[in-house]
Amino acid sequence: MSWIDEIEVDDADGKLAEIYAELIEKRGKVANILKVHSLNANAMSNHLDLYMTLMFGQSGLSRAEREAIAVVVSAENDCAYCVNHHAEALRRYIKDEDTLTLLSSADGLETLEPRLSNIVRHAEKLTSAPGAMTESDLGELRAVGLSDRDILDLTLITAYFNFVNRIALGLGVGFTADELSGYRDD
After folding, report:
1. DSSP string, 39-78
2. Which of 10, 73, 139, 146 pairs as cysteine with 150 (C-beta 3.0–4.6 A)?
3. Are both 119 and 155 inside the same structural domain?
């Protein structure tokens, strides 16, 4: 479901078929953002490895914080695909609709609780004005308990979603309500 050709699950063979099978086993389905890579199975595999490391690997950032970063970066980039996907995932961790609305619009972030506010405002700044980043920006993160490893993870996740947003927007990756739901989140 994009502007380029894609290989469907039933038509895949070789390495691509293996990747699709593993995705379905672990995640329950194949997201359109991954299916758009189907013409280059090696890129899909590497992309998936990076995604799983950043979003599910060990980190001092909680799963909720990681999903919030994804939502804010994607909102800042006007990437409806990623905002919707990751807002859906974020609903598993944050039940407050007002907070979800603030994150999904990347607006009013300063009103969130201090740790989450500093994390997502840092991600927003790195997305919208990367050349304006200064060492003092890290002090605000350290002040709310982030370690240097946490700051690295925050930066990697922010950079990753800027990368993915450009794939989704540049190739017209679309979504349906059915595609947004039903993923396993292990």
Report:
1. T-HHHHHHHHHHHHHHHHSS-SS-HHHHHHHHHHHHHHTT
2. 146
3. yes
- Assigned domain for 185 exists: no
Q: Torsion over CA of 176, 178, 180 and 186, rounded to 10 degrees? A: -160
Range of the domain at 52: 9-57
C-alpha to C-alpha distance for 89 and 132, rounded to whole angstroms: 30
Q: Provide CB contacts within 8 A for 23, sequence distance 6+.
A: 29, 30, 31, 34, 48
Q: pTM (2 decimals)?
A: 0.94
How many domains does the chain contain in total? 2
Q: Identify whether 23 is part of a domain.
A: yes
pLDDT tens digits, residue range 56-65? 999 999 999 9
**Tokens 């950043």 — which residue?**
54
Both 51 and 71 in one domain: the answer is no
Q: Write down the residue that tokens 């490391």 correspond to.
A: 53
Q: Pick the range with the lowest mean pLDDT from 69-83, 94-108, 118-132, 169-183.
A: 169-183
| Percent of the chain scoring above 70 in pLDDT | 97
Burial string for 98-126 (b: 16+ CB within 10 Å, else e) reads ebbebbbebeebeebeebbbbbbbbbbbb
Give domain status of residue 183, yes or no: no
Strands annotated E in the chain: none
